[in-house]
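Exercise 7b. C-alpha coordinates:
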Protein backbone atom coordinates (compact mmCIF):
# COMPACT_ATOMS: atom_id res chain seq x y z
CA UNK A 1 0.00 0.00 0.00
CA UNK A 2 1.36 3.44 -0.90
CA UNK A 3 2.28 5.84 1.86
CA UNK A 4 -0.27 8.55 2.65
CA UNK A 5 0.39 11.61 0.46
CA UNK A 6 -1.46 14.25 2.44
CA UNK A 7 -0.14 14.04 6.00
CA UNK A 8 3.09 15.37 7.56
CA UNK A 9 5.95 12.90 7.67
CA UNK A 10 8.79 12.95 10.19
CA UNK A 11 12.09 11.33 9.31
CA UNK A 12 14.43 10.35 12.16
CA UNK A 13 18.04 9.52 11.36
CA UNK A 14 20.68 8.01 13.63
CA UNK A 15 24.32 8.56 12.64
CA UNK A 16 27.74 7.69 14.04
CA UNK A 17 30.13 10.62 14.04
CA UNK A 18 33.91 10.45 14.37
CA UNK A 19 34.42 11.80 17.95
CA UNK A 20 37.63 13.56 16.88
CA UNK A 21 35.71 15.69 14.40
CA UNK A 22 32.79 16.98 16.44
CA UNK A 23 33.45 20.63 15.51
CA UNK A 24 33.19 19.82 11.80
CA UNK A 25 30.18 17.58 12.45
CA UNK A 26 28.34 20.34 14.31
CA UNK A 27 28.78 22.72 11.38
CA UNK A 28 27.83 19.97 8.95
CA UNK A 29 24.60 19.09 10.77
CA UNK A 30 23.66 22.76 10.93
CA UNK A 31 24.30 23.23 7.21
CA UNK A 32 21.96 20.32 6.46
CA UNK A 33 19.24 22.00 8.48
CA UNK A 34 19.82 25.29 6.69
CA UNK A 35 19.60 23.62 3.28
CA UNK A 36 16.30 21.90 4.13
CA UNK A 37 14.66 25.20 5.13
CA UNK A 38 14.73 26.35 1.51
CA UNK A 39 12.48 23.53 0.29
CA UNK A 40 8.71 23.74 -0.07
CA UNK A 41 6.77 21.85 2.58
CA UNK A 42 9.52 22.04 5.20
CA UNK A 43 7.96 22.10 8.69
CA UNK A 44 11.04 22.03 10.91
CA UNK A 45 14.11 20.05 11.85
CA UNK A 46 16.59 19.51 14.63
CA UNK A 47 19.56 17.49 15.79
CA UNK A 48 21.05 16.36 19.08
CA UNK A 49 23.94 14.25 20.36
CA UNK A 50 23.07 11.19 22.41
CA UNK A 51 25.53 12.29 25.11
CA UNK A 52 28.77 14.17 25.59
CA UNK A 53 30.87 11.02 25.28
CA UNK A 54 28.72 9.28 22.65
CA UNK A 55 29.39 9.05 18.93
CA UNK A 56 25.65 8.72 18.20
CA UNK A 57 23.96 11.80 16.79
CA UNK A 58 20.27 12.10 15.95
CA UNK A 59 18.67 14.28 13.32
CA UNK A 60 15.03 14.61 12.43
CA UNK A 61 13.12 16.69 9.94
CA UNK A 62 9.47 17.03 9.02
CA UNK A 63 7.78 17.80 5.72
CA UNK A 64 4.20 18.52 4.74
CA UNK A 65 3.71 15.29 2.76
CA UNK A 66 5.53 12.54 0.91
CA UNK A 67 6.00 14.53 -2.30
CA UNK A 68 7.72 17.49 -0.60
CA UNK A 69 9.81 15.09 1.50
CA UNK A 70 11.00 13.24 -1.59
CA UNK A 71 11.81 16.53 -3.34
CA UNK A 72 14.28 17.23 -0.52
CA UNK A 73 15.62 13.68 -0.24
CA UNK A 74 16.23 13.40 -4.00
CA UNK A 75 17.68 16.89 -4.43
CA UNK A 76 21.19 17.62 -5.64
CA UNK A 77 21.67 19.90 -2.61
CA UNK A 78 21.08 17.06 -0.18
CA UNK A 79 23.27 14.70 -2.21
CA UNK A 80 26.11 17.25 -2.07
CA UNK A 81 25.58 17.74 1.68
CA UNK A 82 25.67 13.99 2.40
CA UNK A 83 28.83 13.57 0.33
CA UNK A 84 30.51 16.43 2.18
CA UNK A 85 30.10 14.58 5.49
CA UNK A 86 31.08 11.14 4.21
CA UNK A 87 34.54 11.27 5.84
CA UNK A 88 33.24 11.54 9.42
CA UNK A 89 29.52 10.59 9.41
CA UNK A 90 27.94 7.18 8.76
CA UNK A 91 24.21 6.50 8.70
CA UNK A 92 23.04 3.83 11.16
CA UNK A 93 19.26 3.95 11.00
CA UNK A 94 16.50 5.88 9.23
CA UNK A 95 12.84 5.84 10.27
CA UNK A 96 9.89 7.43 8.55
CA UNK A 97 7.10 8.09 10.98
CA UNK A 98 3.99 7.25 8.99
CA UNK A 99 1.01 4.99 9.62
CA UNK A 100 0.42 4.30 13.31
CA UNK A 101 3.67 5.93 14.44
CA UNK A 102 2.94 9.02 12.37
CA UNK A 103 -0.47 9.42 13.98
CA UNK A 104 1.06 9.36 17.45
CA UNK A 105 4.09 11.56 16.56
CA UNK A 106 6.78 9.56 18.31
CA UNK A 107 10.26 10.35 17.00
CA UNK A 108 12.95 8.37 18.80
CA UNK A 109 15.15 11.36 19.68
CA UNK A 110 14.08 12.85 22.99
CA UNK A 111 15.36 16.40 22.45
CA UNK A 112 16.07 18.57 19.43
CA UNK A 113 17.49 21.99 18.71
CA UNK A 114 14.41 24.11 18.22
CA UNK A 115 14.27 26.00 14.92
CA UNK A 116 11.56 27.79 12.99
CA UNK A 117 10.78 26.62 9.44
CA UNK A 118 12.45 29.77 8.12
CA UNK A 119 15.69 28.53 9.65
CA UNK A 120 16.19 31.03 12.46
CA UNK A 121 16.93 29.73 15.98
CA UNK A 122 14.20 30.23 18.55
CA UNK A 123 14.83 33.65 20.19
CA UNK A 124 17.26 33.09 23.03
CA UNK A 125 20.98 33.27 23.72
CA UNK A 126 21.60 30.08 21.76
CA UNK A 127 20.04 26.76 20.74
CA UNK A 128 17.16 25.71 22.96
CA UNK A 129 16.59 22.11 23.95
CA UNK A 130 12.88 21.29 23.86
CA UNK A 131 11.30 17.95 24.73
CA UNK A 132 9.46 15.95 22.09
CA UNK A 133 6.73 13.66 23.45
CA UNK A 134 7.60 9.99 23.60
CA UNK A 135 5.23 7.50 22.02
CA UNK A 136 2.16 6.89 24.17
CA UNK A 137 1.88 3.47 25.85
CA UNK A 138 0.64 0.75 23.53
CA UNK A 139 -2.55 0.34 25.55
CA UNK A 140 -3.41 3.99 24.95
CA UNK A 141 -2.73 3.58 21.24
CA UNK A 142 -4.98 0.51 21.18
CA UNK A 143 -7.83 2.37 22.93
CA UNK A 144 -7.47 5.30 20.55
CA UNK A 145 -7.65 3.06 17.49
CA UNK A 146 -10.66 1.21 18.94
CA UNK A 147 -12.48 4.49 19.69
CA UNK A 148 -12.13 5.41 16.04
CA UNK A 149 -12.78 1.98 14.58
CA UNK A 150 -15.85 0.92 16.59
CA UNK A 151 -18.26 3.75 15.62
CA UNK A 152 -16.91 3.81 12.06
CA UNK A 153 -17.46 0.06 11.69
CA UNK A 154 -20.92 0.33 13.23
CA UNK A 155 -21.92 3.06 10.80
CA UNK A 156 -20.49 1.17 7.83
CA UNK A 157 -22.27 -2.05 8.84
CA UNK A 158 -25.57 -0.15 9.11
CA UNK A 159 -25.13 1.54 5.73
CA UNK A 160 -24.08 -1.68 4.00
CA UNK A 161 -27.26 -3.29 5.29
CA UNK A 162 -29.14 -1.16 2.74
CA UNK A 163 -27.22 -2.76 -0.15
CA UNK A 164 -29.69 -5.19 -1.78
CA UNK A 165 -28.68 -8.79 -1.10
CA UNK A 166 -25.56 -7.82 0.82
CA UNK A 167 -26.41 -10.12 3.74
CA UNK A 168 -26.40 -13.09 1.37
CA UNK A 169 -22.91 -12.37 0.02
CA UNK A 170 -20.15 -14.79 1.06
CA UNK A 171 -18.47 -13.67 4.29
CA UNK A 172 -15.10 -13.09 2.60
CA UNK A 173 -16.66 -10.71 0.06
CA UNK A 174 -18.51 -8.76 2.75
CA UNK A 175 -15.34 -8.36 4.81
CA UNK A 176 -13.34 -7.45 1.70
CA UNK A 177 -15.77 -4.70 0.72
CA UNK A 178 -15.96 -3.35 4.26
CA UNK A 179 -12.18 -3.19 4.73
CA UNK A 180 -11.63 -1.59 1.31
CA UNK A 181 -14.16 1.11 2.22
CA UNK A 182 -13.02 1.64 5.82
CA UNK A 183 -9.22 1.65 5.44
CA UNK A 184 -8.93 5.04 3.68
CA UNK A 185 -11.62 6.54 5.93
CA UNK A 186 -9.73 5.44 9.04
CA UNK A 187 -6.35 6.50 7.67
CA UNK A 188 -7.18 9.93 6.30
CA UNK A 189 -10.05 11.11 8.48
CA UNK A 190 -10.97 9.15 11.60
CA UNK A 191 -7.60 8.36 13.21
CA UNK A 192 -6.02 11.79 12.60
CA UNK A 193 -9.12 13.40 14.16
CA UNK A 194 -9.27 11.01 17.14
CA UNK A 195 -5.57 11.41 17.93
CA UNK A 196 -5.87 15.20 17.80
CA UNK A 197 -8.81 15.10 20.21
CA UNK A 198 -7.03 12.72 22.60
CA UNK A 199 -3.52 14.19 22.33
CA UNK A 200 -3.43 15.64 25.91
CA UNK A 201 -4.44 12.24 27.32
CA UNK A 202 -2.14 10.26 25.02
CA UNK A 203 0.95 12.19 26.10
CA UNK A 204 0.01 12.76 29.76
CA UNK A 205 2.90 11.56 31.90
CA UNK A 206 5.10 10.79 28.88
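Sequence design result:
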Amino acid sequence: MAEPDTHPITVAIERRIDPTRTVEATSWMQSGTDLATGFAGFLGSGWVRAGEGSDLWYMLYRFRDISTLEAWEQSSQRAWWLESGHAFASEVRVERRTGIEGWFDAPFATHVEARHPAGEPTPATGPIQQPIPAAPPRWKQAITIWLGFFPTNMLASWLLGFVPGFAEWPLVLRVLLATIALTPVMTYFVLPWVTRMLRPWLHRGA
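Instructor comment: The longest helix spans residues 171-202. Residues 106-133 have pLDDT under 50 and may be disordered.
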